Amino acid sequence: MPTGRGEAGPALRGGALGRRGRALPAEPEPEPEQEPEARGGMETTGPGGSGVAGSYDVVVVGGGISGLSAAKLLSESGLSVVVLEARNRVGGRTFTIRNKHVGYVDVGGAYVGPTQNRILRLAKELGIETYKVNIDGYAIHYRAGKSRHFVGIRPSTWNPFVYLDYNNFWRTLDKFGKEIPLEAPWDAPHAEEWDKMTMKELINKTCWTKAGKEFATLFVNVNVTSEPHEVSALWFLWYVRQCGGTSRIFSVTNGGQGKYVISAIPPILTTKIHYNPELPPKRNQLIQRMPMGSVIKCMMYYKEAFWEKKGCSAALFIEDEECPIGITMDDTKPDGSFPAIMGFILTRKAVKLASLTKEERKKKICESYAKAMGMEEALHPVHYEEKNWTMEQYSGGCYTAYFPPGIMYSYGRIIRQPVDRIYFAGTETATQWSGYMEGAVQAGERAAREILHRMGKISENEIWMPEPESKDVPSRPFTTTFWERNLPSAPGLLCLLGNTVFFTSVAAAGLFAYKKGLLIRN
């Protein structure tokens, strides 16, 4: 899953929200005429399903955050639940590594922030420690062999036309996003039109300068680990919208039988499950049309945080095809131990550089950091960790699945629709912070409540429960300036200047002709 961007939120220490345990023998099934007793048990099983037999109220497929959130809520509601996980660990697209070189490091989903209230609540319930990420100092935007320092969440530029492109791109995303319903993006007024369009086409329509188009491409790469030509404009507009806008965004066989099933794995992986009876045609077609993004998460450790001494936050935005990393941030522990820079190798670069050895990737990353930061110390790390999510057969990639053009409008509305007694969770089915850990919790708890409603335990209006705002990490509204709201686009400015020159020239010519007596005077 993606990390929290926009306002720098606290890092979530601890990774998975549960632990793998050996399944206990199943209790006897109650007689058919009786209501099942509230056993309130939750069990997990890894590869082989050791110890799992008998019948459960609910079988959850997938032990990631979404599946565990569903299982937790159902278990607390008195149902017997078993979680089936193909790996020998739980956590899914979150994964914490611990060793003497790093202490602990989250090589999957790691960051949470304001408005991500469900994952914040769950972390607090489970006693998972959070801490604020260091954002003190200047950030660096590296492009065309030059580094520019800036402060804030958006790079600055000396070129007024590039600035107009930046501003118009973000403004357009937010403006179009407001037209899209969070729960039903396929019902937006321009849904069909936008779904036929790729983000590359929208970028080309919105941005005029090469620099503007390239930064917009990086914006797409960073947020959904996919290329603009691969993703639907409708889906990306919705994705940004359900994360709170551009500023806020910058995560059954060989087991038991159950009365209900929750599928909490990425859509594309459900094609590996054999269904009897078969899935409905549209569901079967949808899950074959939602590929996963590509990313390698990289942590470079140093003897000391040399960037801090020079006033740098270690936040880098790198636009250079020769540099593996696209975006970075400081990953030093809150007590100052294990100084590190975390970076992402994104989309096309992740695929290209996967053929290199780990040591070769490390060398290229260090060289790119030294070049972008202008600091020779970056060439001398003491340790390197990485996680190539494109190699994970039980995730298929990261951060999230995406909708190519033409899919969301035609198939999107069935992504959460149950199939008989099979219900669907997973962060891709969320309506807020889809693709993030927050979305995983929302989706898992929603699927659990759908089952509770079907069993008659809760009313229908309790399925979609609003989440109170976190008191520990309250959100603050983003404000835009008068100029950000009203500046023209680069083509708009050129058109305005052209019209101004034209009418000024006509007026001057008319005045000249009038004074020379070339015009008839009354």
UniProtKB/TrEMBL annotation:
What is the catalytic activity of this protein? a secondary aliphatic amine + O2 + H2O = a primary amine + an aldehyde + H2O2
- Locate the residues binding substrate: 344
Which ranges are annotated Low complexity under compositional bias? 1-14
Domain Amine oxidase spans what residues? 65-250, 257-452
Instruction: Give the residues the record marks as binding FAD.
Output: 66, 85-86, 428
Give one Pfam hit by family name.
Amino_oxidase
Top-rank EC class of the record's enzyme: oxidoreductase
InterPro entries per UniProt? Amino_oxidase, FAD/NAD-bd_sf, Flavin_amine_oxidase, Flavin_MAO
One term under GO cellular component: mitochondrial outer membrane
Q: Topology relative to the membrane, per the entry?
A: Single-pass type IV membrane protein
The domain of life for this entry's organism is: Eukaryota
GO MF terms held by the record: flavin adenine dinucleotide binding; monoamine oxidase activity; primary methylamine oxidase activity
Cofactor requirement? FAD
Q: Where are the transmembrane segments?
A: 490-514
Keywords of the record, alphabetical order, are: FAD, Flavoprotein, Membrane, Mitochondrion, Mitochondrion outer membrane, Oxidoreductase, Transmembrane, Transmembrane helix
What PANTHER family does the annotation carry? AMINE OXIDASE
Would you tell me the protein name for this molecule?
A: Amine oxidase
